[in-house]
Design a protein that fits this description.
About 35% of the residues lie in helices and about 20% in strands. It is α/β, with parallel strands linked by helices. Helix 1 links the parallel strand 1 and strand 2.
Length: about 130
């Protein structure tokens, strides 16, 4: 069984999220998704997610492509998460290209092209305007 792991905040869930998760699942047999906690999201982006962690987890766990979702609370623990999840492949969006190559000693690292013209940040900015 080929185990895939990916990470994200998955706030304001949109078609780009759905497409990348489906593409992750197509790479292997089992997809584990690390979901940024509210505090970690604030640390990364300087703002809290619109939807709280528990709701984002509920959405992800309801998706056909996702076998399990787990809490991600730190960049520093990524290696630990990959080992805990028995990952064979780490998949990330290409906006992170090169940033996780240091894990290639324990997993294959794959960067997927993001869905063009859609992002949670852009949606939040549109709403604010």
């Amino acid at each position: 069984m080929k185990r895939i792991v990916t990470f994200g905040t998955f706030d304001l869930f949109h078609v780009g999220h759905l497409r990348i998760l489906d593409r992750c699942k197509a790479i292997g047999d089992y997809l584990a998704v690390g979901v940024s906690t509210d505090e970690f999201s604030f640390h990364k982006k300087g703002r809290y997610p619109i939807y709280p962690f528990t709701q984002r987890m509920e959405i992800l766990c309801a998706l056909r492509a996702v076998d399990v979702a787990f809490a991600e609370d730190s960049f520093e623990r990524k290696r630990e998460y990959l080992i805990e999840q028995k990952a064979d492949v780490l998949v990330m969006g290409d906006d992170w290209k090169g940033k996780f190559d240091n894990f290639s000693d324990i997993v294959q690292v794959v960067y997927l092209t993001r869905t063009p013209s859609i992002s949670t940040t852009a949606i939040v900015e549109t709403i604010r305007k």
